[in-house]
Design a protein that fits this description.
With about 900 residues, this protein is of the alpha/beta class. A six-stranded mixed β-sheet has the order 3-2-1-4-5-6. A six-stranded mixed β-sheet has the order 7-10-9-8-11-12. It has a four-stranded antiparallel β-sheet with strand order 23-24-20-25.
Length: about 900
């Protein structure tokens, strides 16, 4: 007999929703999909991994049940379903219909009772029933043929719970769960239970007396007077609770068999695509049918074959290119082969270092390929092209523009997307599921092989497809960039910037290893001292990295009043500790300990591990991550080193020039976002102040408070500075009052005064929100777009956040574009020989270069000029620049 999987539908939907509560899932249109995705993950796990033959999903109805009739307060205090979850319920039903999975519900009958009846009947007939729910009530049904499954909604994994598991989890066996719950009650369902009886006490009572009936028959044996009194006074509630938690197993049901599927083919696949469930879409039947289009992929192994192929495509206007390597670090990974495509559906793979014989000699590849790929009339298209260029450079195959990176094009066209992989873009556009690398080299958790160990016959279709699809995407994306007004930004900024970043990554920046070693020792000593001070102030020793032990020290031993609760108890995060620091030394000392611990692990001890044999660290700069257009840095991240703390400034000293006769040059845009705000808002007062070179924060304070600038106090200037920068991020009165430690009313008066002083800024903010609502996006001065799928959301929090993005993106995004333009212009000067320096780092609004000492004055002058003239705005751009070791 088949196994039967019984899914508590509403419980799974709720659990899926809250599993992603901190980072909710949404599709590209802004529709919430957390519960829907979790539901699908669990279903696919049972279908694909468990090979389930029968599945039924059971839901409650809105009709009142017998439990409500006997106890009006049953489930009375449950909060209403969150709006984001409520609108997903019909979609879950639609998904189940498309998957052809049976759905059950009965007016006036709870899902628990339907599930209980089906489980008992199925087990009695000789089958196994699996109840998919975390509800402890179901523990009463567990036996050899009825088991519980606790779904891990994010991973799709499951954990089976039998009778032993119930005993281990709750402390009582399945046949005592009803009596256990009768005493304990259930706050979520408003089942009263007995006051003073918690989990531990309930287990002790059931273990001693055996059942609820025996407990009340021998009540005199309860030794604790308070507990005995509570049991006496709440006997009626205990028996009522027992009735409420007892699952019925005799519901009259017409259906007893629940085969499912097959899915509704094309419609199921289309729905997965609509919801952006790409991983599931790839494996759907409809996609598999399209995953093998007619293609002509072949291997080139000889000098003659390569020469003939290049001659045959000599008139091509564009060529797709991709590399295969034996590693993920482009600066060190050996090259396994190169693929090329000059015509849709046709591509070649050139193996150069596969373990099997008959590779194409790398000398032939250089001799023939370099002249061809360096032609200015051929566009070289690739996906994440910076990686391929770095690999080719390392193997003396340095090729020149023009380039077309389909990853960056995809990012510009949809900057909010997390799915910018080549296979994601191909899937979204062509419904083609590309072959995964794991099919060739194995899964990460298993023993992988190198790509050069893959037989060439298997490597060729995989590698050739990458070049083919990159070429296809380029041809599709080019007109889209044109029609969206993004072609200029792509061709004039992002593509030249890609090679600038590549140069920076290849060169890296030197770190002072002896200084780092000394700093590590200093931090070790500091951490020991801080730990000693913490133990002294707490009058106890404990594990500083254990939130549970810290909770015990702060909120029990020291008696500090907690401020925020999370799943594991009262929070001890940075925000809470900062709030508690004024009440006791321990929270302040813990914050300091965490600061040094993080700096030590993230930078002081990690940077030497990232450094090469020349002590240079090669960070990766990512163009296609931040939706604002800002660059990000990774492996290691060199953009998050704090600058406003003494420790951060000390840490920055580890970055040094290549040698004693070199210096570092740092150019930093001054108040760039405020200057962009003045420009985009066309705020005359601000524009004039920037032209006059005034202290903009003092100017703002003077205007708001109605005084001359010389009368402005340091406190008033600080307040104006906070508002000047906060307004860009949509800061309101509540946030401002907390940041400045003033009353909310006073903060609101200051904000009102600010907008009275700068009315054009208020108008700009209103106009951006209006533009975003009407168009679904906003854009920077240079036409970089950012979609706003949530700006019309009925969820106030989501809509408000989208409005803040609408205000901020044109400012922050324009600032990001400006420094990118400056980098491109500076690199052109370097390449032409007019600027004898090297770009090393970009840290948000700051550029770091390296040059010889004798060139420093010229370099600072040229860099300052290029940064300040990256674009002509209504206000002057100002750069603070200097050089040193």
């Amino acid at each position: 007999m088949n196994d039967l999987y019984l899914i508590d539908g509403m419980a799974l939907a709720y659990r899926g929703h809250f599993a992603f509560i901190r980072n909710p899932l949404k599709n590209s249109k802004g529709f919430p999909t957390s519960a829907l995705y979790s539901f699908l993950s669990v279903l696919r796990h049972f279908i694909d991994n468990e090979k389930a033959a029968e599945i039924a999903v059971v839901f409650d109805t809105d009709r009142e049940t017998f439990r409500k009739e006997i106890y009006a307060e049953y489930k009375a205090h449950r909060p209403p379903m969150p709006d984001e979850l409520k609108i997903q319920i019909p979609e879950i039903m639609k998904l189940l219909q498309l998957m052809r999975i049976p759905v059950l519900s009965m007016p006036g009958v709870e899902a628990d009772d339907i599930i209980g009846t089906l489980a008992v009947k199925h087990a009695a007939a000789g089958g196994k029933a699996y109840i998919v729910s975390k509800d402890k009530d179901f523990g009463q049904l567990v036996n050899d043929n009825i088991l519980l499954i606790d779904p891990k909604v994010q991973a799709g994994a499951v954990a089976r719970i039998g009778a032993d598991g119930v005993k281990e989890k709750f402390g009582v066996p399945p046949d005592r769960i009803i009596d256990y719950l009768a005493l304990l009650g259930d706050a979520s369902d408003n089942v009263p239970g007995v006051p003073r009886v918690g989990e531990k006490t309930a287990v002790e009572l059931i273990s001693k007396f055996g059942s609820l009936d025996d407990l009340y028959a021998r009540l005199d044996e309860v030794e604790k007077k308070g507990l005995k009194k509570a049991l006496e006074e709440n006997k009626e509630n205990a028996y009522l609770s027992r009735t409420l938690v007892t699952i019925k197993t005799d519901v009259e049901l017409a259906q007893t068999e629940f085969p499912y599927g097959p899915e509704d083919g094309e419609n199921y696949a289309a729905y997965l695509k609509e919801m952006d469930f790409n991983q599931f879409f790839k494996s759907s039947v409809a996609v598999q049918k399209k995953s093998a289009p007619a293609v002509e992929y072949r291997t080139i192994r000889t000098h003659i074959e390569l020469s003939e192929y290049l001659n045959s495509i000599s008139s091509a206007a564009a060529v797709g290119i991709d590399t295969e390597t034996d590693g993920l670090d482009p600066l060190s990974a050996p090259l396994a082969g190169i693929s090329l495509s000059a015509e849709e559906g046709k591509a070649v793979y050139i193996p150069v270092s596969h373990v099997e014989a008959d590779n194409c000699p790398i000398e032939s590849v250089r001799e023939l390929l370099l002249p061809f790929l360096n032609r200015k009339d051929i566009v070289k298209a690739g996906h994440n092209l910076k990686f391929d260029l770095a690999v080719l450079n390392k193997h003396n195959l340095r090729i020149e523009p023009p380039f077309f990176d389909t990853m960056i094009a995809g990012y510009l066209l949809n900057p909010g997307s997390r799915q910018l992989g080549l296979d994601d873009l191909v899937l979204a556009r062509y419904d083609i599921a590309m072959q995964q690398i794991t099919e060739l080299i194995g899964e990460k958790k298993a023993q992988q092989i190198l790509f050069s160990q893959v037989p060439v016959a298997s490597a060729t279709p995989y590698a050739a497809a990458d070049a083919d699809m990159a070429l296809r995407l380029m041809k599709a994306m080019k007109p889209e960039l044109d029609s969206s007004g993004l072609a200029g930004l792509f061709l004039d900024v992002e593509m030249p910037l890609m090679t600038v970043l590549l140069s920076m990554e290849e060169l890296g920046i030197k770190v002072d290893k002896p200084f780092l070693e000394q700093l590590s020792n200093d931090y070790d000593q500091k951490l020991i001292e801080l730990q000693r001070d913490i133990f002294k102030e707490a009058d106890a020793e404990f594990n500083l990295n254990s939130p549970k032990q810290l909770q015990e020290i702060l909120f029990v031993k020291l008696g500090i009043k907690p401020t925020k609760k999370n799943k594991t108890g009262f929070s001890t995060d940075a925000e809470v500790l900062e709030e508690l620091a004024s009440q006791h030394p321990v929270p302040r000392l813990i914050m300091q300990h965490r600061k040094y611990q993080k700096l030590k692990s993230t930078y002081v001890d990690a940077l030497p591990l990232w450094a090469d044999k020349n002590d240079r660290v090669h960070s990766s700069f990512n163009q296609a991550i931040a939706a604002t257009g800002r660059l990000s840095s990774s492996e290691p991240n060199l953009q998050n080193i704090p600058i406003r703390t003494d420790e951060g400034r000390e840490l920055r000293k580890v970055f040094i020039p290549a040698s004693d006769d070199h210096v570092l040059v740092s150019g930093d845009y001054s108040q760039i976002e405020l200057r962009v705000l003045a420009h985009v808002a066309n705020e005359k007062v601000l524009i004039e102040a920037f032209h006059e070179g005034e202290d903009i924060h003092k100017k703002t304070a003077a205007l708001v408070f109605g005084m001359i600038p010389s009368m402005v106090t340091a406190e008033q200037r600080a307040m104006a500075k906070t508002v000047n920068f906060g307004i860009i991020y949509g800061q309101g009165a509540f946030s401002l009052s907390q940041q400045l430690g003033i009353a909310r009313g006073e903060a609101q008066r200051f904000i009102d005064g600010y907008f009275a002083t700068y009315p054009a800024i208020r108008t700009y903010m209103d106009n951006m929100i209006k533009f975003g609502r009407e168009n679904g996006y906003v854009e920077t001065v240079f036409k970089r777009r950012r979609p706003l799928p949530d700006i019309l959301s009925k969820n106030h929090q989501d809509a408000s956040f989208a409005e803040r993005i609408a205000i901020n993106t044109p400012i922050q995004g324009t600032a990001a574009d400006l420094i990118k333009i400056a980098m491109v212009r500076i690199q052109k000067k370097i390449d032409s020989g007019l600027l004898k320096a090297s770009l090393l780092l970009q840290v948000h609004d700051e550029l770091v270069l390296e040059c010889r000492k004798e060139d420093a004055e010229t370099v600072t002058s040229i860099v300052k000029y290029e940064m300040e003239h990256a674009a002509e705005l209504k206000v002057p751009l100002k750069v603070d620049i200097g050089s040193g070791h």
